[in-house]
Queue: 3 jobs
Job 1
Amino acid sequence: MLLFSIVTIAQNTLTNIKDTYKVEDFILHKKLDSAKHYLAKLEQDSYYNILEKLVKKQELTYREYYIFTSKLSNRQSVKYQEVSEYINENVLKPADKNINLDYFEIIWIQVYKLRDEISIDEAAEKQKELEAYIYSFNQSDRNVIKAKLKSTTHPIVMYQIQGDVENGKKLCLDGLQKSEELEDKELQIIFLYYLSDFLILEGKLQEYIDVCKKSLLLENQLQHTSSYYFSTIENLINAYVYKRGHNDEVIELINILYEEEDRRIHTYSLYAQLIASLDKNSSLKKQILQKFDVTNVKDLVAKFRGLGKDLNSNDTYSLLNFSSYALSAHDYKDLALSYKDLALQTIKKTYSKELSESLANFKTDIAIKEKQKEVELEKVKTKLYAIIAILAFVLFIITLLVLRKIKKQSKELKDKNVLIEKTLQEKELLVKEVHHRVKNNFQIVSSLLELQTKGIEDERALELANEGQNRVKSMALIHQKLYQNESGLIDFDEYIRVLIKELSSMYASKTNVETLISSKNVMFDVDTAIPLGLIINEIITNSYKYAFKSDKKNSLLISLEKEENKDYKLIIEDNGPGLSTDINVKKAKSLGLRLVNRLVKQLHGTLKQTNSKGAKFEIYFKDIHQRQLVN
């Protein structure tokens, strides 16, 4: 009977939560009649009163708006773009003489969410509004000081994106010191959280762990945990798993996250990361398999992938990446490779050309709108001239006034032309900055892969991790060249020479190679450069690994030129033993050759491999313009 009562209570609670979600969704989409229907089913509490006010279109306090928008922001099933639009439309800036901290918190969270989920540009505009609001009050007021301090989190994150450890860390330490002087524990937690990000970039693992533990101690002193509580736990779990020997603490921390319905989806990558570090016969591994009702690691990661289908791209990459490590550690090598390939595809989607265009087009749209206004003003001006010509004598005085107005409008048009020119220049700088940030993010990924390799003992897994790191470096080098080049094109002769230098330094202790490169006056855009760079990286790496020996004279020939039919020809040839006759290059099972074949198809090209004095690869492909003609 008791069990039946418990089950009934649980079912009622779940139904109440689902009905609450429905009411929130209908309010968000302005379907108040439907919201009113489900509101009648809810239990009456303080949050019910807020929802009732919204349904009845009654005025809310800023505290009530904060509670409502925060609940929407924390729901995985709600698109934050819709929440942001709701805030912009309904939460107006207060006219109070003193700063309203509830309004500040609403906009501060909006900046955070826009930056991480929507657009850095939109976040920057909101940040400006927030700073203008803060600076409109007495700067010696204690609440204003706290708000001003908290608003520095946006520039801190921007320093992190740019990889500027020195300035970002300094801002964190200054904020932490002032928070301690104010004896504000929540502010201390915030700055400790961002400080930990810079410590991991510096490779200071123990300091990173100490900062996370200090933050959790402060959390225990708060009446309610901060919004950084669960993220800090995730950071500490990652550090403990990487350090090894803290499995009990890891399980305890993961369970805290798992018990929270909104955070449960983030625990699957943490479980996969832990599984990758456990022995095959570990009792803890068996407990985890039993928890998720599966019998092996292969079924476990498949289940994680299904449960985590609603994760964003960054969290999806983490889940796939750690699943790959877990599969590799438990002898599912082929499946591990496929998960690693999916993870790399996720990275490519995250840092694709579309990302650059979405950021740059924001400024372009503004320029177009300003130009349209200018055209409309010119039409108005022409109409005014016609009227003036007809009524010149009768309306002489009015004509003078109109001419004066036209002069003023001309000045405005001139100012707008200057603004348009400045906007276009900002767009060019923005595109360069995007390439710079993408390069920095690839370098962060490369550094993370390098950190991961230190914990890998399996030689094959270590080799795969190093190859993945090389591929990320080759893509980072593309974006570095784009950032440095004003034309937006990449000089491939220079790129190949830098790539050869990187690879030769890696294998310098084993071999000495005489390299001949012929690729003058060959320039490519990013859509051609990235796959072509990966192809060259894979083939040259293969030569260094299998063709070159320390006891003989090694040579490598790379030729890249444009054919008369406007296609391009790439030849890479070494003087090694060549590929085995049993290997069909186009049907090869190795990840490297599969990747080469796929990338050649992406370039609408053909691949031919022969063995004469060594392995010789001939690749014919099309640049972006020729591929567009074919499409």
Job 2
Amino acid sequence: MTNKPLNDTIHRVTERVIANSRDSRAAYLELMEREGDRQVNRGSLSCSNLAHAFAGAEEDQAAIMAARGPNLGVVTAYNDMLSAHQPYYRYPERMKIWAREVGATVQVAGGTPAMCDGVTQGEAGMELSLFSRDTIALSTTIALSHAMYDGVALLGICDKIVPGLLMGALRFGHLPAIFVPSGPMGTGISNKEKQRVRQLYAEGKASREELLTSEMGSYHSPGTCTFYGTANSNQMMMEMMGLHVPGAAFVPPGAKLRQELSRAATHRLAAIGKRGEDFRPLSRVVDEKAIINAAIGLLATGGSTNHAIHIPAMARAAGIRFDWTDLAELSSAVPLVARVYPNGSGDVNHFHEAGGMGYVIGTLLDEGLAHADITTVWDGGFESYSREPGMDGDALTWRDPGPSGDTEMLRPASGPFQSDGGMRLVQGNLGRACFKSSAVERERWTVEAPCRIFEDQPSVNEAFRKGELDKDVVVVVRFQGPRANGMPELHKLTPALGVLQDRGYKVALVTDGRMSGASGKVPAAIHCTPEALGGGPLAKLHDGDIVRVCAATGELSTPSDLDSREQSPAPDPEIGMGRELFAMFRAGADGAEQGASPMLAMAGL
């Protein structure tokens, strides 16, 4: 493969990230070096320590006791309420068998919580969602604290789970680590039909039974939800960072190919430990270029806006500084090569069938739009990820994906859907926010209208039902930031705002809360920072103030004189559903642009 030289903008942003991270990255790598040198060897543990560690290992007990080969720790986010994680039930026992094939052993190091944003959407539990990421990172740290492991298999897929697993594992970056996905469920009803019924329900023209039937036609079996939201964006990023077996992201559960990819991951993890000849610790795999590649993949595929928060947090865990200026500048250079629902008509299964991640990585490398020289967990480097996996009889193979199988879904970087990545920074006297322009028609990129102020989702939907929003309006939903209430997703706003837009009104959303990868067609300035609580300018807006949101010029502003106004008081935090137990997380959280992580902020990272 002959690739063009690296794009100048990507080179410039990478060099800036490296320079901004110099001291923090050096401190991180020094810590990992020390941890690797002083890490307790299993053979030096006391007899009592060891007896506890392998008392339950059954047939692997003798091998672990004799330290015959690498002992691999599994950190699993299994539960069978998340459809994406239900297939993980059998993974550890299979991985034990596959490990024995190469003289290794496997123990489940620990489990992490794994909540479903789809279940908690619009409910009280959503206020725990973002902080579940830090809880998962802490759980991963506890799981790996036993000093028994030579490598880490990370079993997780969904929204906060992959970022949390990676953030925790990076603090044990002296060990190699591989993510092992389980794949998406089969395609259900068409996304257009699902969206149609949701909007009918929002208008009172469809019953709850009709809506539930439609939703069950979409979410119907084990596997990841098939729209291109945060969960599937996670899988894309793990490929872009070289943390999967190549092509593992979107192979469905239950397929022979899926099993063989998981087997290959187990074998490979055993091969890249410190005892072998191909040592690849996680701290060296996740570097500045890998983080840049993750951001490039997000932009090129129109991925989840949640990663404007997660990428900075994951980077910080590795001593790397990455912010929205970096993301926006990369977006100016990275073309949009994929349109997957909600940015297109087909889902991730159609995306995979059309060429998937192998095609995306190949076309980005062809045009010099990704770092080809990153260290990956797989032998052969990042170009190995431009191929797609398959089976030749019982053997796992990889092949060139060839041209796009559907040019309405996948196009080459030389002839993309649009010339930029569609993730824009808007800023002004109302703060800094993210605008996902790839999901919004260009004629809607600018909205200037009187604002209507709300402090929760139900109030917006009640005003919609009363007809109070039937006009050109900028809906401002404030006190939704990490320190106020944990920064819940505001996904329940999308149907109502979409109806208003379809009625011909100019509508936009401005919020210090989150919108997910399922964010739809309504222009939205989201993750606004500084948040309203504690001094953010959204707390000084009044009903009727003119607000301008413009993705074309990067503007988020009001002509009103905010300096002369007092802050509106924040509502008291809600209690119940355990939200009161997360008060310390809210108090310790930093801004969305820094990753909104109380764990990293309080650790001084």
Job 3
Amino acid sequence: MEMKELLKQGIAEALDKAIAAGTLPAGDYPAISLEVPPQKEFGDFATNIAMQSARIARRAPKMIAEAIVAQMDYPWLDRAEIAGAGFINFFLKHDVIYDTLKNILAAGAEYGKAPLREEDTVQVEYVSANPTGPLHVGHGRGAAYGSALVNLLRAAGCNVQAEYYINDAGNQMNNLAASVNARYLQLLGREADIPENGYHGHDIIDTAQAIIDQDGDAYLNMPEEERLELFKDRAYVEKLKALKRDLAAFNVHFDNWFSERTLHPDAIHGACDVLKQRGKLYEKDGALWLKSTDYGDDKDRVVIRDNGVPTYLAADIAYHKNKYDRGFGSLINIWGADHHGYVARVKAAMAALGYDPEKLEILLLQMVSLFRDGKPVKMSKRTGQAITLNELIEEVGADAARYFFIMRSLDTQLDFDLDLAKSHSNENPVYYIQYAHARIYSIYRQVQEAGDALDMNWADVQWDKLKDEQELELIKKMAAFPEEIQRAARERAPHRIAHFAHELAGLFHTFYNHCRIIQEDKELEKARLALVTAVRITIANSLAILGVSAPEKM
């Protein structure tokens, strides 16, 4: 059992004993929470349970704390002290602290992870950009955050499916076909204009050129309607393939790719039929409207236009109905902040269909601003267009891009410093963490160069050799990792893991500068090797959640 859980259990048992002894009344006491005190002299952990229980116990917090502490006679507890108005500070014996190291070394890559709860099903849908061109940096933040959240939820024990919703129906696909067609004609010397809502990126020219390279002018005299359908399919296949390739290069992978085309027309009509049967649609001006104001939306919404064509909302209703019908325990959508006005109407539609709208959680990502030399960067030097995710990866690397995207809470605007992300310095947080991991492999090599055997069998380690304050601080920090995963998962906050990894790396670098590993005292050397191996494991497991590599050399 992890030492934090052991202490929580001990406090709960002491509380029960105090109630049984009559020093505290029976009641519905709050859950026990523990914190690491800001100053070392206040112990290893502290709790405010006595202060939280004052109303239930109808006693002063200090009296409650005294009643709990009186019952805490455990072989692993050195002492408990009451501080201030009723805080309890706990000082653990080193033996229980060393147990954390044993657990980490035994668990390896599984350290921190909770057992899989098959029934705790979560679907996370993210990125879902139109397959009409390359991903830009805004998509990159959603991709990094979404994939890290999937990793985090899985580490916390959830049964997660990651899904990409391909917007491959509607006007954007028609505009893609028309844009490729215009470039195709231009490249073959014909006059043609890009449509008003068309796509002007250089990738459209590349698509048209690829068609010419393969088939020449074979489609020049084809009826335009046929040529547009052909180019739509050719461009769609190419763009979707490129999109999948770019995401894979960014360490982003999906369990399911859901095509919007599969919703047309049957699923959309089916969803509308259910809404009609439930009396949630009405006709006005030849269109069908959803009574979304019945569920808190600021106005009713058109679902089917007066020309019979479904709106984007109609497809989204059918898609989310499909999600609910697949039986997930919870649904998480990650959208850009510009979609905030869409949240109420989608939730209203789910409520109108008879589903629980609270089961659908919509997280909104704020914007990303790139900076170079302290100045905003908006356009690509290469194309004059918005900077693509691929260009960002080329400049700073996938690891740095992912970490910088994840290290801030999703609801805060992100200022991305390109110069910092590229720097090999302690100021670059991802470099700082990865260097700690690589430094441990360097220690292994130094041990072997010194002529010592690198024995990774930790059964005979003399753990009580680890007495230095830096050593104990490292162990206590690592002990918090499993609970940090659970908390970050509950809060949908992968940035907490980014901060944890950075703090652990900082403690390790301090330890490294203070404590020599290679020693004449070989028992101390072995104990410190075990300690740094546990650090390596915990850093690697943290970076794995973030989707960032853990290099052996830098």
